[in-house]
Amino acid sequence: MQTVYEAAGGAGGLLSLAHAWHARVMADQEVSHAFSHGYHPQHSERLAAYWAEALGGPAAFTGVYGDETSVVRIHSGNGPHEEMNRRAIACFDQALADVGLDRDDRLRQVLHDYFAWATSTTMYSYHDSADDVPDGLRLPHWSWDGLVREGATGHGTAWSAGEPSD
User: Fold this and answer.
1) Using the 8-state DSSP alphabet, how is residue 116 labeled?
2) pTM of the full structure
3) What three-state secondary structure class fits 105?
4) Can you say how many angstroms the Cα of residue 2 is from the centroid of all Cα atoms in its chain?
């Protein structure tokens, strides 16, 4: 079976999506605030590598840029911001349409579910301080069936997005 990464067009498809999403959020008054402190010049490339790895592609992020802990720390310590999250997800959905990834309903839905889950859980768990983020977090993986939980043997098991974490 084709991975979500492959169905989304691989590295090139996710890079196009990352560029489209970034353009959408920069045009959104609420979400662009998150970038007001500046951002890495290769933000879209790094984001695409992160999504690629999370969606079943190569370890293009953790093999080059860092681990999950570093990503979560960047997104932490900003207090609650549910409206910004909601609008970032809406920008993502619009970006899916911008790059044509909304044509396949199943792919559109799994990409939406992944982004909404990541935005409202892993990237939104540490409101008070980035110092609260524990070391050693592993980049979550997502399949057609939702969040993949690594078992003792290292083989993933798909869990629904609403399943509580350990």
Assistant:
1) H
2) 0.82
3) helix
4) 19
